[in-house]
Amino acid sequence: MKQAKKDQTDAVEVDDVQGLVVYGYGHLPIARYVFVSFTKAAKIGAWLGEIVEQTPSARRREKGAPRPSTAVHIALASSGLKQIGLSDEERATFSYHFIDGMANLATQRTLGDFGDNAPETWDFGGPNTPPIDALLLLFATTEEEVEALLERHRDRMSELGIEVVTVEKGYRRDDGKEHFGFLDGVSQPHILGGGREPEAGDVALHPGELLLGYTDEYAEISATPTVGAKADPEAILAPHPDDDTQRDLGRNGSYLVYRKYQQYTSKFWGFVWESAQPRDGQDKDAAAVMLASKMVGRWPSGAPVTLTPDRDAPELVRDVPPFTRLRGGGYYFLPGLRAVRYLAWRASNQPGLLASPAKPQPRAEAG
Asked: Any transmembrane segments, and where (predicted)?
């Protein structure tokens, strides 16, 4: 539901926003992404109720307070919301990308996911792999800590009927570079009013660009999913600002996109080496780095080629082979903490038969 335009920058309700939306967790370089499905016997409400109490909000730490050594976050797939008990009408208030999923033909055409990248070849999230209802995101300072955290959650999920489909490992390199050798994370958005102090290079954005229910860069309120007021008799959710018959399920939430790529680093640098043409006294290594930088858009140091160019080199343009392969992916809803509590209650109480339906909304874009 698009709301009326506003001119001011909103103050973000940081206590209701999952911390992952605002902070990059640079001090937690080790991650585990746990993709799960809900069995028929799953105690989803109990699980979500426990997870939300472990999930940090976006509120800044008190000055001098120690940084946490771990963090736990939760995101839900459209199928997970259905398992929780949301009706088709309620789920239709979400972004159509989220509802349709990443493995449908329309999205394939948009993203070019064909051939080796087709969903049928994916490790997870595709039509030939088990369904995924939720994504549990675990972060820690060391491998030992994240493995211990994962083991605790595995044990508890097993007790509650939550089935682990697959676990993907993640880590941040010590040099801050991605696997092709270029500095990563150089264009991080800063949410105005979000509580975090901006850092050098941050791009300041109105919160509605990343958070549902807030003003975006067009001075409009971003669309937000809803449920009927009768589906929230405990008044866990906030009323929708433009319709008192609806409750705002999306406010302070966001959408999360997960894409797993396999990077062919040797193939990339082999292509660059063969294609580079030294000139003006350059050696082959320097020419290869220059070509790679122009392809990536920045030098290995992170300096953008638009600000530090050598010169235009149209003679180097040619057909470029793929250097990555898509291995899995999906769209997820990263709910606000109040919404997680509501979904925990909803899963335990299943009020769908008594609920007033959500009002159909124009299909909103994700991101």
From this structure: none
